Amino acid sequence: MRYLPLTDGDRQAMLATIGAASIDDLFVDVPAEARLAGTIPGLPDHASEMAVERHMAALARKNLSAGEAPFFLGAGAYKHHVPASVDHLIQRGEFLTAYTPYQPEIAQGTLQVLFEFQTQVARLLGCDVANASMYDGSTACWEAIGMARRITKRGKAILSSGLHPHYVSVAQTMAKFTGDELAYATPELDSECDNSKLIAAIDKDTSCVVVQYPDILGRIEDLTALADAAHTAGALLVAVVTEPVALGAIKAPGAMGADIVVGEGQSLGVGLQFGGPYLGLFACKQKYVRQMPGRLCGETVDAAGKRGFVLTLSTREQHIRREKATSNICTNSGLCALAFSIHMTLLGEKGLRQLAGLNHALACQAADRLAKVPGVTLMNDSFFNEFTLILPTDAREAVRNLADRGILAGVSLGRLFPTAPDLANGLVVAVTETTTAEDIEALAKALEEELA
Amino acid sequence: MRYLPLTDGDRQAMLATIGAASIDDLFVDVPAEARLAGTIPGLPDHASEMAVERHMAALARKNLSAGEAPFFLGAGAYKHHVPASVDHLIQRGEFLTAYTPYQPEIAQGTLQVLFEFQTQVARLLGCDVANASMYDGSTACWEAIGMARRITKRGKAILSSGLHPHYVSVAQTMAKFTGDELAYATPELDSECDNSKLIAAIDKDTSCVVVQYPDILGRIEDLTALADAAHTAGALLVAVVTEPVALGAIKAPGAMGADIVVGEGQSLGVGLQFGGPYLGLFACKQKYVRQMPGRLCGETVDAAGKRGFVLTLSTREQHIRREKATSNICTNSGLCALAFSIHMTLLGEKGLRQLAGLNHALACQAADRLAKVPGVTLMNDSFFNEFTLILPTDAREAVRNLADRGILAGVSLGRLFPTAPDLANGLVVAVTETTTAEDIEALAKALEEELA
Amino acid sequence: LEEKLIFEIGSTDTTGVDFADAPQAASRLGSLARTDGIGLPGLSEQETVRHYTRLSRQNYAIDLGLFPLGSCTMKHNPRLNEKVARMPGFADIHPLQPQSTVQGALGVINELAVWLITLTGMHGVAMTPKAGAHGELCGLLCIRAALEARGDARQVVLVPESAHGTNPATAAFCGYKVEDIPATPDGRVDLEALKARLGPDVAAVMITNPNTCGLFERDMKVISDAVHAAGAFVYCDGANFNAIVGRVRPGDLGVDAMHINLHKTFSTPHGGGGPGSGPVVLSEALSPFGPLPYTARMADGTIHLIEEDNVGEEMPQSFGRMSAFHGQMGMFTRALTYILSHGADGLRQVAEDAVLNANYVLRSLEDVLDAPFGASGPCMHEALFSDKGLAEGFTTLDIAKGLIDEGFHPMTMYFPLVVHGAMLVEPTETESKAALDQFILALRSLAERAKAGDEALKGAPYHAPRRRLDETLAARKPVLSWSEPDLADAAE
Amino acid sequence: LEEKLIFEIGSTDTTGVDFADAPQAASRLGSLARTDGIGLPGLSEQETVRHYTRLSRQNYAIDLGLFPLGSCTMKHNPRLNEKVARMPGFADIHPLQPQSTVQGALGVINELAVWLITLTGMHGVAMTPKAGAHGELCGLLCIRAALEARGDARQVVLVPESAHGTNPATAAFCGYKVEDIPATPDGRVDLEALKARLGPDVAAVMITNPNTCGLFERDMKVISDAVHAAGAFVYCDGANFNAIVGRVRPGDLGVDAMHINLHKTFSTPHGGGGPGSGPVVLSEALSPFGPLPYTARMADGTIHLIEEDNVGEEMPQSFGRMSAFHGQMGMFTRALTYILSHGADGLRQVAEDAVLNANYVLRSLEDVLDAPFGASGPCMHEALFSDKGLAEGFTTLDIAKGLIDEGFHPMTMYFPLVVHGAMLVEPTETESKAALDQFILALRSLAERAKAGDEALKGAPYHAPRRRLDETLAARKPVLSWSEPDLADAAE
């Protein structure tokens, strides 16, 4: 086996040192009836690198990849161009094959990256501090609800109808067990968000209001009034950002008063990857830092007085605090955080603003063109790079038919909200810098034919 | 521009330090009429990474890659499976973006690799010493002829008809200018090599006999008698190996008396790449080392007594010796040598022998199957992983037709020897560990249909 | 070896990326256009490559040497896995694409699921959990859902003292009360104490097997039977599955749920702290309660995705979604690649060599380092030592930091908690005998120095990018993000 | 920082590669089966990754810092180039595939050819040469072929003293007699001396422009005219094209042949000593004589390959093949990717920034280091200093080795030969002002130390993987391959 360096000679010599007659002697503690005599039946034996690569390549070819088709899917995962240098750098063995930086003397590379990442995320989201990453946006969102409960000592969270339904679903799963109460309704096909309804719903039991920005239908609205209303009632505002590129063009939630801002960082550096691994972003106001879940990297000095970085405030964490921890999270998304941070460094503020501007301009072009397809209505007044079309027919069916023609047309609301027939004709279309004028035209033409 | 870090502010500040009013002032030495005022007409301006990647990908898609088709081409370039770790390692920035190791204190990585490479190559080819690489097999072959001239002070080289015709062509090009005389004839479609004819041709003016092993038609023959005959006449035997994997299965030329052994190292680690960059191997007996062309890495110690490596014997080289150098070569194939060396280290002797055995066994299977195609004759009695079929028709035409059916059937002798009509029906077929039973069957079937 | 921060070298006017010009279009951003300076510095591509290349060189990594972190299973990460994960057919597909366009991806999930079920002898598997701790959560949610389905709202989860911190944290995170189970003097779960505590309020017992002392829980089957008899479920922390893969099926021992860290047993890279992946294999009793989305192969060979819209017919008892999409697909492709490379025979060899290597370390060092459970028999995949016998004032920490100067990563220290000054060494099966011999030599020499009271050891490491770092300062006065020096000064 | 050799750590029984079992087949190897031990050690994949990862860390590289090697143009190597070169459509095609199956590859060659011709203002280009020196060979072969075609067997090539060593070596390698041309005190070719030497025996003049002193040959056009008038050809060494790309076309200056180092001007990686690539642009007079294979775009848009079988109709005067296949395809894809990224405007900026950076270095240091031609005006892309003014016994070597301790690669030293103790600094356009400022500071401090006679400098480097190495020992008693220690001892 190419990954196992021991030779049979080594094994014999080592058994002799140990004083065991055979490998089996080392497994004596396993009850005899559970000790398998041979290989597990029904599974193939080892294979050459070439054979495995061919098998996996054959599976890969059964997928239609985003780069092979006009592609308009978003709804929480976005196709952006990732510079080649990002992937080159994250493959450096010293990053890729390092462990969690618990030994800071020999992990300054990872630690400094995390410190830089935390700073970038905090600034992007408009907050004071950010942690070193969570699993993804949806789990970060639930962690924020739990954190709001700990801070406010209240158990009722109000979820905006514009929150990604899968994020809602994750929160509902957890709330069943923790006893949190979640107020939520599916969205309406309206150009306005439900902020006024949310404000009306806030009461003295409310731990937090959770609002997505831009929301699942692509709408963007000012959060200031919502934040004020929450704060007045002693509740927190949790903002969720699933498309961080947007924040190169629109105001940061933190700047509009959000207390906790979480997000999905996949857009920068990480890639689509069929949904994972992704990158949970988590930031908040300074005063709440000790209630934060997840790892934090902090600056300090070494014995010689040199600046250095360490994981810190770990008394919040499970490996120290056990059942009293702020979260059970251990392994997070370190390598994805690295990729995000490198991509952000390559962009810089200048590049991020250009990228965001290009996304928005192309989305406007696409919206204008697609709204001209007979029978199709553009729902949004406001949007960043994603908007909702209302088709004269079931959008889920249309998406499947367009896929058969080689066009990945967007995410149907029927896929996202299968139990809400009112939304069935909605189609969420995302446009990024990777979208060409030809792609837009191809979608428009195909939609015209599909709806004819 | 993403690769140019100076900002306009930097440029102004730097011009001020220099004391120049504008960039143009720095180009004053260029005659005014040659100084272009604007960009060169007829060329596009800069493009985003994404746009360039798309353009190049579109070009790449216009090629039928070896992995996409049953593939049987050889004749000096072979498709082998290269372990993924090879490419990972050669992309380490410290290898990829280093310069020639003229500053040994900060180039021990490259230098130790070259020392290991030289040792591996010398052992594989059965010689005492090897250099740190040449451009490719064909230029190494010419360098060997020149080296034999310097050693023997004779100007006539006898080239075997089994030598790759492109290698012959390179030698003929150079000989036109250096005045070397080259004896050469195109091969015959015979199961035996022309060793006896070569022996007969050796005379007192002969600097060297150049013989390929396995030869261009795939034949392998013992070189001992040839070496003895050359040595008796005061000439050298130069052996050329275009498929180094063969030497895991068959005797090394050095062990049969060859004085200089050169080769193409592409098979290990390097990949097909449409013909370049490749890797010239060059090894010889110890006594000729000071007549060798190319860089050499040698062991030494540093000021603290630690073992270290340096480029050495550079008085043979152009940057010291100028017009009296043993060659004009400067940049060689350093990174390809690294890839070769890593691949060889992964294989080790055990793996190399397995690889060679698998190549040979599959080639035998393929030869047996293809010889059953009606009208097709197997020319070879002996071969390693490549053999010649004699078709009842022009093989060049057949290869083109099979390509239209998606099968890359081999190299026709008409492509290699366009001026030798006697060879027109010959087809050289190479088989490696990447060839499957399905590939062989697909070729056999397609050939049956083509010849029907 | 000091590398400035991007905030100190970059500028908001510099970028390492070019874009095509944006087409003219009327903005739909309304009054929300961002006008403030964000404060994100950029670097050119070369500066970027340099910054991160230099930073990387301040890390230790498996690619540089042996990484004996007990319980973390720092084994070799094959490069084929990385290559496969980057095939566009895997890397560049969206989680919400129509099923007809992602049959290969669903096939990977399904194929890996079959392997995990077969290797563990279990009934089903939940693929979505995103790391080991997330898998624990999944397992406990299944257990809770199963209990609630039978109207049995038990509130207590029993956890051995030696458990990973994630175990009690997870139980608490989903609303359970956590109680400890003591250990026996030979480092295993105290069966009698456990039995005594079992009762109608106990929902589950969480056991790590092989446990965090590196020992196999000999009584596992008896424990399972007792737990089941008491109406509770057995959760097994599978962090140490590497020791038994291919040789022992947890399903044969009565386990109801076990997470598998793909980044431990199945070689996906740790990446400096993730991403991990923690699929959970489930017994027949728990399988109906697993999370969405779920994949299943249909009679016609297509792979079918169970989500909210068809969950009613297909998996009506599912506890719901626990992350937005399908789980760690990028880790699935790597793990499946690794599994297919080894096959059933190779994986068995993995366990054998992992255990052999650990016992070799144990027996080669027990004369100089106290091995608290060394006398009770062989260890599994990790060797546990304690600080007993070190000179006054010398600690496990000193030995750990001393290892850095010898060119190794420290072992796991001060864990498990049941052993004083624990040093937990897990060499893994991908280390050669030569590498082990070097490591043993280094650790022997450090043990001898710590016993002899060599004061120099207390200052180690000397030859690392940094000397010991002041963690107290970091926690007392947390600086968690960078700010302009003058602003920071002004704030003091 | 010592890494053993593979021969010291590997064994011939170990392998890091698995193969399928070979099918049974009767051997066709006859009596030639290799039975001796070859002596090639193997390592497992993990050991292999570690060995080469650790070795790599003993190298300096552009990815780590500024690399001011004059004439070598160590600029940033964009990672997109690497990605593109690895696309299977480029990396995995055979040079002898039928033309219909490689139209994309031939298209790359043709597209790059058009760029090179247009950027240089020349008539044709030979793409096959495999490095700069190979390109020189190609150019001289064209010249010789052209002269022979007119029955004019000239035997002398004139080369300036300041030329790269490859120039005289190449001329000699293809049978020419080499004669030097002297330099003027301002570091340029002595026009009068050149004119005086021109005559019917002179085949060509080889000139580097910008020259190796970093100066533009102001008289280039005059020289070309004089050379042409004498019936000879002008070969231009294009190693320094980086300084003028996009701003000056060598074709406008009367050049007949010039090689272009794709690894210098067009950013393909140096790879620790290659592979390079050296296409040669040719004037109308020389184009008919270029090497095979040649590519040409047909009226129907297909790219057509000219090889031996059609050379008679298409290029009857070709001097033939100079390497087996099409040249450095892998470098063509990288160079074309780079060129398209920059475009005509970006390439012009390349030259401007390269020249600006060099002049900034020159003017920032000429107060502490002697700049022999500093007074004559601006330099081009490299700044030349001499050892004049250093304290007795201190040399250019000391400053170069001192730079290593400051974290930089040394500059080119003792070249060009026309300046005593030359230090040739080429920062390239991909360095930021901040990086230059750091470098200037370091070099300034070293210059001051060498002038003050700081003895410590003579021992530099102190902070590198090795101290100064004994090159004399290496050459006197060459050890060029590894042998078992006992065998080596016995041989002494």
From TrEMBL, chains A, B:
Residues 1-446 form the Glycine cleavage system P-protein N-terminal domain. NCBIfam families: PRK00451.1. It comes from the Bacteria. Keywords: DNA-binding, Oxidoreductase. This is Probable glycine dehydrogenase (decarboxylating) subunit 1. InterPro entries: GcvPA, GDC-P_N, GDC_P, PyrdxlP-dep_Trfase, PyrdxlP-dep_Trfase_major, PyrdxlP-dep_Trfase_small. The gene is gcvPA. It catalyses: N(6)-[(R)-lipoyl]-L-lysyl-[glycine-cleavage complex H protein] + glycine + H(+) = N(6)-[(R)-S(8)-aminomethyldihydrolipoyl]-L-lysyl-[glycine-cleavage complex H protein] + CO2.
